[in-house]
Structures are given as C-alpha cells and as structure tokens.
Design a protein that fits this description.
Strand content: 15-25%
Oligomer: single chain
Number of strands: 9
C-alpha cells in the first residue's frame, strides 16, 4: 500500500523524473510531490519543458545549474551538496526517490554523482525523510534499452493509460522523438531499491 504523502524526487536532469519514476508520480497524484533537478536551469529549451511537466504532475519543481557539458568532468561533492541544500525546501519528507549508484544505463556520471550525494545527505539527516528509494534499472552494459531490475525491492507494472501519459510527457512535453533513446527508455515497469531510516540508524 502507498502510505507516502510528502515525496521528494532528486534527479540529475529534467526528464529523469519521468523516465525513472513518472508512472509512480502519476499513479499517486494525491501525494505532495517536489522534484529537484541539479542541471539545466539555464537551458532555454529544457527548463520551460520541465516547468510544463511539473504542471502535469501537479508538483513543485526546482532546478540547479551544475555543469552538464558533454565531457562530463567530475563535480565536487561540495558543489553538489551546496546545490542540493540550496534547492531543498525546509520540510520533512515521507519518501525520497533518486538515482542508483550505477545510474540507470551505461553510463552517465551525473546520475551516479546525484545518487551518492542524496544518500549521503539522507544518512546525515540533512535530507529528512522516513524512506529513500533508489531507481533500479540496468541496460546490460549498453546492450539494450534500460529495464527494471527484476529482483529489486519494489517493482510495479504501470497500467497502460499511466504508461501512455508518461510516454506523452517524454515525447510531447519534452519533445523527444519516437525513435529516441528517451522514448525507448520509457519503461512500462518501474523499480526501486528501498531503504528505511529506522533500519539504517540504530
């Protein structure tokens, strides 16, 4: 049963929230959603599309502007931490969703950095939340489009109408083509590794 009211999604890029958790957000639209993306605030194309996506989700959205150049130079943990703390609302959350340590496909450094930073802030108490769920996807080392990991702690198959709405956000709101990586990565199953605060802080 879904028991979460105040929910936070922290991702590297606008569209990650939809690719890896959009169906979950749509199925639980009565929850109070906040979405933080660490990159692309100054992107004149992606930033307004992110705002439109947040309107569809009925979510609060905030954007950072960390480096997201194609070369992907590593970011300092200090810069990621500062950006996250500046974007976080002063609230306690029931649930936080974020990237896994290995990202969701081969490979994107920003996904990996984001997942590690969020976990560290949650463990330190700087992100106050009862549970943290990390996206659980893999692509066989780049052999196929990302798919949900079958033995993840939690996995749900999206109803067709929810998946279609999720796909529409990727292809119509964000504007990715039907043959794009993003379209092919719009999974019909969503999966997460789940961690509870009480179990981690004994």
């Amino acid at each position: 049963m879904w028991t979460f009211n105040k929910c936070l999604v922290v991702v590297a890029h606008p569209d990650d929230e939809t690719l890896w958790a959009g169906g979950t957000m749509l199925m639980h639209s009565d929850s109070n959603w906040t979405v933080i993306t660490l990159c692309r605030a100054s992107d004149p194309d992606r930033a307004p599309k992110f705002s439109k996506a947040m309107e569809i989700y009925g979510a609060r959205g905030d954007m950072g502007d960390l480096d997201d150049s194609p070369e992907q130079p590593p970011l300092s943990s200090r810069d990621i931490r500062r950006t996250l703390l500046n974007l976080l609302p002063p609230a306690r959350f029931d649930l936080v969703l974020t990237h896994g340590f290995q990202g969701e496909y081969t490979s994107h450094l920003r996904h990996e950095e984001t997942g590690k930073a969020v976990l560290a802030l949650w463990e330190s108490g700087d992100i106050a939340a009862g549970e943290l769920w990390r996206f659980a996807y893999e692509d066989g080392g780049g052999k196929y489009a990302p798919r949900a990991i079958a033995d993840a702690d939690f996995m749900t198959t999206l109803p067709h109408d929810i998946w279609q709405q999720k796909h529409d956000i990727i292809t119509q709101t964000y504007g990715f083509g039907l043959d794009s990586f993003e379209s092919k990565a719009t999974t019909k199953q969503e999966a997460f590794w789940c961690f509870r605060a009480r179990a981690r802080r004994t």
